[in-house]
Amino acid sequence: MSEAWVTELVERTLTEDLTGGPPLPHAPDLAVRHDVTSSATIAATRFGTADLVARAPGVVAGLPVAARVFQRLAPGVTLTAGARDGDTVATGDVLLTVRGPVRALLAAERSALNIASRASGIATATRAWVEAVAGTGAVVLDTRKTTPGLRPLEKYAVRCGGGSNKRMGLYDVAMVKDNHVAAAGSVADAVALVRECAPSVPVQVEVDTVAQAAEAVAAGADFLLCDNMPPAVLREVVAVVAGRAELEATGGLTLGVAREVAATGVDFLSVGALTHSAPILDLALDLRAAG
Question: What Gene3D superfamilies does this protein's entry cite (predicted)?
């Protein structure tokens, strides 16, 4: 995640909560002027300490971004880390302690939790897949099936969980799918056209039969995306390809079959569910002292 992107995410996230109403006469400062409840019930001079706490076990991610949310609304806030991204935590563990103006802490609460909970949920789901294939040599990958606007955060969370990133966009790997083959005329023609247009970009071809895999390797593909192949067929592809291209299994994968698929000899398992279906990790902000 770039510094500029994190800054933009923090601003965009806070804007969802803190715009849309007029400044309150007794609380004109930007940080809390649209948090009606906190402005009405908490004195502007009141300081306090709050803990960001895990309500369930999992793997945490996004804590530095959550910290930035608090810093945006209370530049002088004191932050004490209780965990680091990638750590496995238990229910009740304190992940981050913040001290500052209570109004600002509560105004930042939901934005910070939304970011950290989403990222931690993805990291937790990823860790389960990584553990399922441990020792096989296969690497767990994400996909481009991410929440619009949150791709850098979600792919960062996959790395925190022990997985790896596939394509960040349509520019860093050329993925030749059936529609591209139909438009180009053949797999070989599609690969040749990509090589001519972007010679430095790796080329991956989607295949769903052993014959297609052999054709794609002969055409010079660097990677094969083996779509919805059962383990027996994957083993055939591994034998036919014989190390001439990297192999990625995808489609219909579940944790229950992950190890069996990884054991076929493929290099990667790509799992869209890491980002499109991972539940959040339940986190909360508990105000424990104020004065």
Answer: Aldolase class I, Quinolinate phosphoribosyl transferase, N-terminal domain
Please tell me the predicted confidence (pLDDT) of residue 290.
61
Task: Give the relative orientation of helices 3-18 and 102-132 as an angle to the nearest 10 degrees.
Answer: 120
Q: What is 72-138 written as a DSSP string?
A: HH-TT-EEEES--TT-EE-TT-EEEEEEEEHHHHHHHHHHHHHHHHHHHHHHHHHHHHHHHTTTS--
* pTM for the predicted model, two decimal places: 0.92
Average pLDDT over residues 87-98: 98
Task: Kindly name the residue from 154, 227, 248, 267 that is annotated as catalytic.
Answer: 227
Catalytic residue status for 145: yes
What residue ranges define each of the domains in the chain, with the CATH number in brackets?
3-125+279-290 (3.90.1170.20), 131-276 (3.20.20.70)
155 is catalytic: no
pLDDT at position 25 over 60: no
- Among residues 159, 177, 244, 259, the one annotated as catalytic is 177
Query: Catalytic residue at 166?
Result: no
Q: Which of 55, 87, 110, 159 is catalytic?
A: 110
Is position 154 annotated as part of the catalytic site? Answer: no
